[in-house]
Design goal:
Oligomer: single chain
Radius of gyration: 23 Å
Number of helices: 12
Largest sheet: 8 strands, mixed
Structural class: alpha+beta
Number of strands: 15
Shape: globular
Strand order of the largest sheet: 6-14-8-13-12-11-10-9
Length: 423
């Protein structure tokens, strides 16, 4: 279906744009924590044979030419070895995108509008993710075949977290069902992984407009909580890797992280992980490199450090990466003021939106165990999105044992341990 040409490259043309997970900065940071990393320049075209087959079948897509999908993009591939190098996985975060640009939601909604008296006339073919399931399934499969010779020989699976987003769960589930159906019908080695690597569900807060306009899009109670925190004397301080106090502040963040984990039953990285991330960003920025800016924010009240977050700003996005808070003085709403302060700084930096980075998709239900987390993130006025989650292309039989072990581990940590701890 596609003609794919891949070349290994050493430098990126857009080092601080797109998803941060694909930036050289992030990938190089991950290499200091157990991963290997390669970057590729990829060109993909529709194959002539596929176009001819469409014409022969009289398909409505038969007007396609190999210039309709002729894209070049950079692709970062992370590799991690297990069992002393016996096997490894290749991981591609938030790539690739859909083959064809989708019709905007505004156009579709206008065309589907029905006021009971007039019916809109549709004079164009809509392009949606669902209309591209065949092409996308083959893109993942054929991209994997092209990548395989360029990866370590012990690679057992290529795992994708595609950058395909939906505004409601039903459309996402329909798309994933379509991919599974195509994979089965066309005997593609493409499987939906039950354990997602990146959080597939999130909410994106637009940073367009004035600060007052951003606040106006928030829930009224959230605006009140921000002002309450300010009135009660909560102060937000920002630190980066060059700050004189950064070592002690990272210690404090980690202390708050352990307190949060004990309260919520979560796990976290080692302290060195957070330290390396913050320091490496500051070091490279000081060297004049075009890399994302990583900051540590701490909320203080009368000398007590009561909450903290770590953020990443790039030219495309800003992301709330990690957060932690004390059990004390939670009534002062420091987390609301922390997020609002980071949003203002991200807007000043030039980011287009602020990603709350992960939320329970069904959390709107008051009976959901993570309802509070959902409401905290959703009420900042963002747009909820739902990505496909992780998809695997197995390369050998070892993968199936590894996949089983992954599911067992996830069940143990998310179900058994939390139940034992009463959560």
């Amino acid at each position: 279906m596609f003609d794919i040409n891949i070349n290994k490259i050493t430098e990126s043309k857009t080092p601080n744009e797109g998803t941060f997970l694909q930036t050289p900065f992030w990938c190089e940071f991950k290499t200091s924590h157990g991963w290997q990393y390669n970057r590729f320049d990829v060109n993909v075209k529709l194959s002539k044979s596929y176009i001819e087959s469409l014409k022969a079948e009289g398909c409505e897509k038969s007007t396609f030419t190999n210039e309709d999908y002729n894209k070049s993009f950079e692709l970062a591939v992370l590799n991690r070895s297990f069992l002393k190098g016996l096997f490894s996985i290749a991981y591609i975060p938030l790539m690739p995108e859909l083959p064809f640009e989708c019709t905007s939601e505004e156009v579709i909604n206008a065309a589907m509008a029905d006021d009971g008296e007039t019916v809109a006339v549709v004079n164009q073919e809509f392009v949606t993710p669902e209309t591209q399931t065949i092409e996308f399934a083959f893109l993942l499969s054929e991209l994997s075949k092209a990548l395989k010779p360029l990866l370590p020989k012990n690679t057992m699976v290529i795992r994708f977290d595609p950058e395909v987003t939906f505004t409601n769960l039903e459309d996402r589930d329909l798309f994933n069902y379509g991919l599974k159906t195509v994979a089965w019908a066309d005997k593609l080695k493409l499987k939906k992984n039950k354990v997602d690597i990146q959080p597939p569900d999130s909410t994106l807060v637009s940073l367009e407009g004035t600060e007052d306009e951003i606040l106006a899009r928030m829930h009224q109670k959230w605006r009140y909580n921000i002002r309450l925190s300010e009135r009660k004397g909560v102060i937000i301080k920002k630190y980066n890797g060059d700050s004189a106090e950064i070592s002690s502040k990272i210690d404090k963040f980690y202390e708050l992280t352990k307190e949060t984990n004990a309260r919520d039953g979560n796990a976290s990285h080692a302290k060195s992980y957070y330290r390396d991330l913050i320091l490496s960003s500051a070091k490279q920025l000081k060297e004049g490199k075009d890399v994302p800016e990583v900051n540590l924010y701490i909320a203080e009240h009368e000398g007590d450090e009561i909450a903290s977050i770590v953020t990443l700003f790039s030219k495309t996005e800003s992301v709330y990466l990690y957060g932690a808070s004390s059990n004390n003085k939670r009534n002062l709403m420091p987390n609301h003021l922390l997020q609002w302060t980071a949003m203002k700084d991200a807007k000043a930096y030039g980011s287009k939106y602020y990603d709350m980075y992960g939320m329970p998709p069904e959390g709107k239900d008051e009976n959901h165990p993570m309802h509070g987390l959902y409401m905290f993130k959703a009420n900042f006025g963002g747009k909820n999105i739902h990505r496909t989650g992780s998809w695997d292309v197995p390369l050998n039989a070892v993968y199936y044992g590894y996949s089983w072990a992954e599911k067992l581990r996830a069940f143990w940590h998310k179900k058994v341990i939390k139940k034992i701890k009463g959560r």
